[in-house]
Amino acid sequence: MALTTLLGPSAFLKLSTSFNGEPSMSSSNSLSLMGSPITLSLPTAFPVNKSFSRKKFLVFSRRMSGLEEAMKIRRERELQVVGKERKGPPLRRGKVSPRLPVPDHIPKPPYVGSDILPEIASEYQIHDSEGIAKMRAACELAARVLNFAGTLVRPSMTTNEIDKAVHQMIIDAGAYPSPLGYGAFPKSVCTSVNECMCHGIPDSRQLQNGDIINIDVTVYLNGYHGDTSRTFYCGKVSDAMKNLVKVSEECMEKAIAVCKDGAPFKKIGKRISEHAEKYGYGVVERFVGHGVGTVFHSEPIILHHRNNEGGCMVEGQTFTIEPILTMGSIDCITWPDNWTAVTADGSPAAQFEHTILITRTGAEILTTC
Q1: Which range marks the domain in which residue 272 is found?
Q2: Based on the structure, what is the number of domains in the chain?
Protein backbone atom coordinates (compact mmCIF):
# COMPACT_ATOMS: atom_id res chain seq x y z
CA MET A 1 0.00 0.00 0.00
CA ALA A 2 1.71 3.14 -1.26
CA LEU A 3 2.52 6.30 0.63
CA THR A 4 1.96 9.76 -0.82
CA THR A 5 4.74 12.17 -1.69
CA LEU A 6 4.97 15.66 -3.12
CA LEU A 7 8.72 15.59 -3.54
CA GLY A 8 10.08 17.12 -6.69
CA PRO A 9 12.63 19.60 -8.05
CA SER A 10 12.88 22.44 -5.55
CA ALA A 11 12.61 25.13 -8.20
CA PHE A 12 9.16 24.19 -9.48
CA LEU A 13 5.53 24.30 -8.44
CA LYS A 14 3.24 21.45 -9.34
CA LEU A 15 -0.48 20.73 -9.29
CA SER A 16 -1.41 18.45 -6.42
CA THR A 17 -4.64 17.58 -4.68
CA SER A 18 -5.67 18.57 -1.21
CA PHE A 19 -6.95 16.06 1.32
CA ASN A 20 -10.57 16.74 0.38
CA GLY A 21 -9.93 16.10 -3.29
CA GLU A 22 -9.88 19.70 -4.54
CA PRO A 23 -6.93 20.64 -6.80
CA SER A 24 -4.44 23.06 -5.31
CA MET A 25 -1.06 24.49 -6.17
CA SER A 26 1.65 23.45 -3.77
CA SER A 27 5.39 23.71 -3.55
CA SER A 28 7.20 20.51 -4.53
CA ASN A 29 9.54 20.54 -1.54
CA SER A 30 7.15 18.88 0.90
CA LEU A 31 6.39 15.27 1.71
CA SER A 32 3.06 13.99 2.89
CA LEU A 33 1.59 10.75 4.15
CA MET A 34 -1.93 10.70 2.72
CA GLY A 35 -2.26 14.47 2.93
CA SER A 36 -0.36 15.23 6.15
CA PRO A 37 2.49 17.60 5.22
CA ILE A 38 6.01 17.26 6.56
CA THR A 39 8.48 20.09 5.94
CA LEU A 40 11.78 19.04 4.39
CA SER A 41 15.03 20.92 4.01
CA LEU A 42 16.23 20.81 0.41
CA PRO A 43 19.45 22.14 -1.11
CA THR A 44 19.28 25.40 -3.02
CA ALA A 45 19.46 25.31 -6.79
CA PHE A 46 22.87 27.04 -6.81
CA PRO A 47 25.33 28.45 -4.24
CA VAL A 48 25.00 32.00 -2.96
CA ASN A 49 28.09 33.90 -4.05
CA LYS A 50 28.63 37.64 -4.22
CA SER A 51 30.69 37.21 -7.37
CA PHE A 52 27.77 35.49 -9.05
CA SER A 53 26.73 38.37 -11.30
CA ARG A 54 23.23 39.27 -12.39
CA LYS A 55 24.25 38.60 -15.98
CA LYS A 56 25.40 35.07 -15.15
CA PHE A 57 22.23 34.52 -13.18
CA LEU A 58 20.13 35.47 -16.19
CA VAL A 59 22.10 33.14 -18.46
CA PHE A 60 21.69 30.32 -15.94
CA SER A 61 17.94 31.00 -15.70
CA ARG A 62 17.52 31.01 -19.46
CA ARG A 63 19.36 27.71 -19.77
CA MET A 64 17.19 26.17 -17.10
CA SER A 65 14.09 27.57 -18.77
CA GLY A 66 15.18 26.10 -22.10
CA LEU A 67 15.74 22.71 -20.50
CA GLU A 68 12.32 22.84 -18.87
CA GLU A 69 10.72 23.70 -22.21
CA ALA A 70 12.53 20.88 -24.02
CA MET A 71 11.42 18.38 -21.38
CA LYS A 72 7.86 19.68 -21.59
CA ILE A 73 7.78 19.35 -25.38
CA ARG A 74 9.20 15.82 -25.21
CA ARG A 75 6.61 14.77 -22.63
CA GLU A 76 3.76 16.26 -24.68
CA ARG A 77 4.88 14.31 -27.72
CA GLU A 78 5.00 11.13 -25.67
CA LEU A 79 1.48 11.75 -24.45
CA GLN A 80 0.23 12.26 -28.01
CA VAL A 81 1.56 8.84 -28.97
CA VAL A 82 0.72 6.86 -25.85
CA GLY A 83 -2.16 8.68 -24.22
CA LYS A 84 -4.89 7.99 -26.77
CA GLU A 85 -5.57 4.42 -25.70
CA ARG A 86 -8.56 4.71 -23.40
CA LYS A 87 -11.35 7.22 -23.79
CA GLY A 88 -14.21 5.16 -22.41
CA PRO A 89 -16.56 6.19 -19.61
CA PRO A 90 -14.66 7.57 -16.61
CA LEU A 91 -14.47 5.52 -13.44
CA ARG A 92 -17.35 6.25 -11.09
CA ARG A 93 -17.72 5.32 -7.47
CA GLY A 94 -20.27 2.64 -6.66
CA LYS A 95 -21.94 1.86 -3.37
CA VAL A 96 -19.53 1.08 -0.54
CA SER A 97 -20.81 -1.51 1.92
CA PRO A 98 -20.02 -1.46 5.66
CA ARG A 99 -16.62 -2.73 6.77
CA LEU A 100 -16.41 -6.41 7.57
CA PRO A 101 -15.85 -7.72 11.11
CA VAL A 102 -12.66 -9.36 12.36
CA PRO A 103 -12.84 -11.97 15.14
CA ASP A 104 -11.68 -10.73 18.53
CA HIS A 105 -9.01 -13.42 18.89
CA ILE A 106 -7.03 -12.13 15.88
CA PRO A 107 -4.27 -9.67 16.90
CA LYS A 108 -4.75 -6.22 15.41
CA PRO A 109 -2.24 -3.48 14.51
CA PRO A 110 -2.07 -0.57 17.00
CA TYR A 111 -3.77 1.90 14.62
CA VAL A 112 -7.04 -0.07 14.55
CA GLY A 113 -9.78 1.79 16.40
CA SER A 114 -8.53 5.24 15.47
CA ASP A 115 -9.47 7.21 12.35
CA ILE A 116 -6.28 9.26 12.60
CA LEU A 117 -3.74 8.47 9.88
CA PRO A 118 -0.55 7.16 11.53
CA GLU A 119 2.68 9.07 11.00
CA ILE A 120 5.51 7.49 9.04
CA ALA A 121 7.76 5.71 11.54
CA SER A 122 11.32 7.09 11.43
CA GLU A 123 13.07 3.81 12.20
CA TYR A 124 14.13 1.42 9.44
CA GLN A 125 12.69 -2.08 9.56
CA ILE A 126 15.84 -4.18 10.11
CA HIS A 127 15.33 -7.71 11.36
CA ASP A 128 17.17 -10.49 13.16
CA SER A 129 16.71 -14.11 12.12
CA GLU A 130 13.44 -14.46 14.07
CA GLY A 131 12.05 -11.28 12.54
CA ILE A 132 13.02 -12.41 9.05
CA ALA A 133 11.21 -15.71 9.58
CA LYS A 134 8.05 -13.87 10.64
CA MET A 135 8.34 -11.48 7.70
CA ARG A 136 8.61 -14.44 5.33
CA ALA A 137 5.46 -15.97 6.81
CA ALA A 138 3.44 -12.73 6.55
CA CYS A 139 4.64 -12.03 3.02
CA GLU A 140 4.01 -15.59 1.84
CA LEU A 141 0.44 -15.34 3.11
CA ALA A 142 -0.02 -11.98 1.34
CA ALA A 143 1.23 -13.55 -1.90
CA ARG A 144 -1.19 -16.48 -1.61
CA VAL A 145 -4.09 -14.14 -0.94
CA LEU A 146 -3.15 -11.99 -3.94
CA ASN A 147 -2.97 -15.04 -6.21
CA PHE A 148 -6.43 -16.06 -5.01
CA ALA A 149 -7.81 -12.56 -5.56
CA GLY A 150 -6.53 -12.66 -9.13
CA THR A 151 -8.61 -15.76 -9.88
CA LEU A 152 -11.74 -13.75 -9.05
CA VAL A 153 -11.13 -11.09 -11.69
CA ARG A 154 -13.66 -11.42 -14.49
CA PRO A 155 -16.40 -9.33 -16.13
CA SER A 156 -19.45 -8.70 -13.89
CA MET A 157 -17.53 -9.42 -10.67
CA THR A 158 -17.66 -6.46 -8.26
CA THR A 159 -14.65 -5.23 -6.36
CA ASN A 160 -16.74 -5.50 -3.21
CA GLU A 161 -17.07 -9.25 -3.83
CA ILE A 162 -13.29 -9.48 -4.23
CA ASP A 163 -12.83 -7.61 -0.95
CA LYS A 164 -15.21 -9.95 0.86
CA ALA A 165 -13.44 -13.08 -0.40
CA VAL A 166 -10.00 -11.68 0.40
CA HIS A 167 -11.13 -10.64 3.87
CA GLN A 168 -12.39 -14.12 4.63
CA MET A 169 -9.20 -15.82 3.45
CA ILE A 170 -7.05 -13.53 5.59
CA ILE A 171 -8.98 -13.99 8.82
CA ASP A 172 -9.24 -17.75 8.18
CA ALA A 173 -5.43 -17.75 8.26
CA GLY A 174 -5.47 -16.00 11.64
CA ALA A 175 -4.24 -12.71 10.19
CA TYR A 176 -5.61 -9.18 10.05
CA PRO A 177 -6.18 -7.30 6.74
CA SER A 178 -3.82 -4.33 7.29
CA PRO A 179 -5.70 -1.69 5.23
CA LEU A 180 -8.90 -2.16 7.25
CA GLY A 181 -9.19 0.82 9.59
CA TYR A 182 -5.85 2.34 8.55
CA GLY A 183 -6.61 6.05 8.66
CA ALA A 184 -10.32 5.19 8.37
CA PHE A 185 -9.85 3.13 5.19
CA PRO A 186 -13.11 1.14 5.11
CA LYS A 187 -12.08 -2.06 3.34
CA SER A 188 -9.66 -4.97 3.61
CA VAL A 189 -7.97 -4.58 0.22
CA CYS A 190 -7.33 -1.82 -2.34
CA THR A 191 -8.81 -2.34 -5.81
CA SER A 192 -7.68 0.21 -8.41
CA VAL A 193 -9.36 -0.03 -11.82
CA ASN A 194 -8.13 1.51 -15.11
CA GLU A 195 -7.26 5.18 -14.46
CA CYS A 196 -7.13 4.67 -10.69
CA MET A 197 -3.47 4.91 -9.70
CA CYS A 198 -3.92 3.36 -6.26
CA HIS A 199 -5.99 3.20 -3.05
CA GLY A 200 -9.24 2.36 -4.82
CA ILE A 201 -11.98 1.45 -2.36
CA PRO A 202 -13.91 -1.74 -3.23
CA ASP A 203 -17.54 -1.03 -4.09
CA SER A 204 -20.54 -2.23 -6.09
CA ARG A 205 -19.10 -1.39 -9.54
CA GLN A 206 -18.93 -4.44 -11.79
CA LEU A 207 -15.69 -5.10 -13.63
CA GLN A 208 -16.00 -4.70 -17.39
CA ASN A 209 -14.43 -6.65 -20.24
CA GLY A 210 -11.18 -4.87 -21.11
CA ASP A 211 -10.55 -3.41 -17.65
CA ILE A 212 -7.28 -3.68 -15.80
CA ILE A 213 -7.31 -3.83 -12.01
CA ASN A 214 -4.57 -3.55 -9.43
CA ILE A 215 -5.26 -5.50 -6.26
CA ASP A 216 -3.16 -4.46 -3.26
CA VAL A 217 -3.02 -6.93 -0.38
CA THR A 218 -1.39 -6.41 3.00
CA VAL A 219 -1.74 -8.83 5.90
CA TYR A 220 -0.72 -8.49 9.55
CA LEU A 221 0.41 -11.88 10.85
CA ASN A 222 2.16 -12.51 14.19
CA GLY A 223 3.01 -8.83 14.51
CA TYR A 224 4.44 -8.34 10.99
CA HIS A 225 3.01 -6.83 7.79
CA GLY A 226 3.45 -8.39 4.34
CA ASP A 227 2.59 -6.05 1.44
CA THR A 228 2.18 -6.84 -2.26
CA SER A 229 0.13 -5.90 -5.33
CA ARG A 230 -0.34 -6.85 -8.97
CA THR A 231 -2.30 -5.59 -11.95
CA PHE A 232 -4.63 -8.14 -13.54
CA TYR A 233 -6.49 -8.28 -16.88
CA CYS A 234 -10.27 -8.51 -16.90
CA GLY A 235 -11.46 -10.38 -19.97
CA LYS A 236 -10.04 -9.31 -23.32
CA VAL A 237 -7.63 -6.42 -22.82
CA SER A 238 -6.14 -4.31 -25.63
CA ASP A 239 -2.52 -4.79 -26.65
CA ALA A 240 -1.72 -1.25 -25.54
CA MET A 241 -3.05 -1.93 -22.03
CA LYS A 242 -1.21 -5.24 -21.89
CA ASN A 243 2.03 -3.49 -22.78
CA LEU A 244 1.54 -0.92 -20.02
CA VAL A 245 1.02 -3.72 -17.51
CA LYS A 246 4.00 -5.70 -18.83
CA VAL A 247 6.39 -2.74 -18.67
CA SER A 248 5.18 -1.80 -15.17
CA GLU A 249 6.08 -5.25 -13.90
CA GLU A 250 9.43 -5.11 -15.68
CA CYS A 251 10.18 -1.77 -14.02
CA MET A 252 9.62 -3.30 -10.59
CA GLU A 253 11.80 -6.30 -11.44
CA LYS A 254 14.63 -4.14 -12.79
CA ALA A 255 14.51 -2.00 -9.66
CA ILE A 256 14.72 -5.04 -7.39
CA ALA A 257 17.74 -6.26 -9.39
CA VAL A 258 19.84 -3.24 -8.29
CA CYS A 259 19.12 -3.74 -4.59
CA LYS A 260 21.73 -5.07 -2.17
CA ASP A 261 23.55 -4.12 1.01
CA GLY A 262 25.21 -0.73 0.52
CA ALA A 263 23.40 0.18 -2.72
CA PRO A 264 22.04 3.75 -2.92
CA PHE A 265 18.25 4.04 -2.82
CA LYS A 266 18.34 6.47 -5.75
CA LYS A 267 19.33 3.62 -8.08
CA ILE A 268 15.75 2.35 -7.81
CA GLY A 269 14.22 5.46 -9.35
CA LYS A 270 16.93 5.68 -12.01
CA ARG A 271 16.39 2.13 -13.21
CA ILE A 272 12.58 2.44 -13.25
CA SER A 273 12.66 5.74 -15.14
CA GLU A 274 15.12 4.48 -17.73
CA HIS A 275 12.93 1.52 -18.61
CA ALA A 276 9.59 3.36 -18.54
CA GLU A 277 10.89 6.15 -20.77
CA LYS A 278 11.82 3.68 -23.50
CA TYR A 279 8.09 3.14 -24.01
CA GLY A 280 6.95 6.71 -23.43
CA TYR A 281 5.27 5.94 -20.09
CA GLY A 282 5.16 8.32 -17.16
CA VAL A 283 6.39 7.32 -13.70
CA VAL A 284 4.13 8.64 -10.94
CA GLU A 285 6.07 10.66 -8.37
CA ARG A 286 3.32 11.25 -5.82
CA PHE A 287 3.18 7.67 -4.49
CA VAL A 288 6.19 5.91 -3.05
CA GLY A 289 7.42 2.66 -1.55
CA HIS A 290 8.22 2.39 2.16
CA GLY A 291 9.76 0.40 4.91
CA VAL A 292 7.53 -2.38 6.19
CA GLY A 293 7.74 -4.89 9.03
CA THR A 294 6.31 -4.58 12.53
CA VAL A 295 5.19 -1.14 11.31
CA PHE A 296 2.99 -0.80 8.21
CA HIS A 297 4.70 2.33 6.84
CA SER A 298 8.14 3.53 7.87
CA GLU A 299 11.33 5.02 6.54
CA PRO A 300 12.98 4.68 4.09
CA ILE A 301 10.79 6.44 1.54
CA ILE A 302 11.37 4.72 -1.83
CA LEU A 303 11.14 7.15 -4.75
CA HIS A 304 10.36 5.49 -8.07
CA HIS A 305 11.42 8.41 -10.29
CA ARG A 306 14.86 9.90 -10.88
CA ASN A 307 16.13 11.65 -7.77
CA ASN A 308 19.26 12.62 -5.88
CA GLU A 309 18.11 11.66 -2.41
CA GLY A 310 20.76 10.12 -0.17
CA GLY A 311 20.77 6.91 1.82
CA CYS A 312 21.88 3.32 1.24
CA MET A 313 20.33 -0.09 1.78
CA VAL A 314 21.27 -2.21 4.79
CA GLU A 315 21.42 -5.97 5.10
CA GLY A 316 18.39 -7.33 6.98
CA GLN A 317 16.19 -4.40 5.95
CA THR A 318 12.71 -4.81 4.43
CA PHE A 319 10.82 -2.34 2.26
CA THR A 320 8.47 -2.22 -0.70
CA ILE A 321 9.09 -1.27 -4.32
CA GLU A 322 5.80 -0.39 -6.05
CA PRO A 323 6.09 1.80 -9.16
CA ILE A 324 3.00 3.17 -10.90
CA LEU A 325 3.22 3.83 -14.64
CA THR A 326 0.73 5.78 -16.73
CA MET A 327 -0.03 6.18 -20.43
CA GLY A 328 -0.55 9.90 -19.94
CA SER A 329 -0.43 12.40 -17.11
CA ILE A 330 1.45 11.52 -13.94
CA ASP A 331 -0.64 14.03 -11.96
CA CYS A 332 -3.59 12.77 -9.97
CA ILE A 333 -6.94 13.85 -8.64
CA THR A 334 -8.05 12.54 -5.25
CA TRP A 335 -11.73 11.75 -4.85
CA PRO A 336 -13.73 13.16 -1.92
CA ASP A 337 -13.33 9.80 -0.14
CA ASN A 338 -9.75 11.03 0.56
CA TRP A 339 -8.25 7.81 -0.81
CA THR A 340 -9.06 7.05 -4.45
CA ALA A 341 -6.39 8.63 -6.68
CA VAL A 342 -7.09 8.77 -10.43
CA THR A 343 -4.97 10.12 -13.27
CA ALA A 344 -5.71 13.77 -14.03
CA ASP A 345 -6.41 13.05 -17.71
CA GLY A 346 -8.22 9.73 -17.29
CA SER A 347 -5.40 7.69 -18.85
CA PRO A 348 -4.78 4.13 -17.62
CA ALA A 349 -2.30 3.33 -14.85
CA ALA A 350 -0.69 0.07 -13.75
CA GLN A 351 1.23 -0.90 -10.63
CA PHE A 352 3.19 -3.84 -9.22
CA GLU A 353 4.59 -4.26 -5.73
CA HIS A 354 6.81 -6.62 -3.78
CA THR A 355 8.18 -6.58 -0.26
CA ILE A 356 11.90 -7.34 -0.40
CA LEU A 357 14.63 -8.26 2.08
CA ILE A 358 18.08 -6.77 1.54
CA THR A 359 20.90 -9.30 1.68
CA ARG A 360 24.66 -8.94 1.41
CA THR A 361 24.68 -9.74 -2.30
CA GLY A 362 21.19 -8.81 -3.49
CA ALA A 363 17.53 -8.80 -2.52
CA GLU A 364 15.15 -11.61 -1.62
CA ILE A 365 11.56 -11.17 -2.79
CA LEU A 366 9.47 -12.12 0.23
CA THR A 367 6.00 -11.80 -1.30
CA THR A 368 6.13 -15.03 -3.28
CA CYS A 369 4.54 -18.42 -2.74
Answers
A1: 82-89+103-365
A2: 1
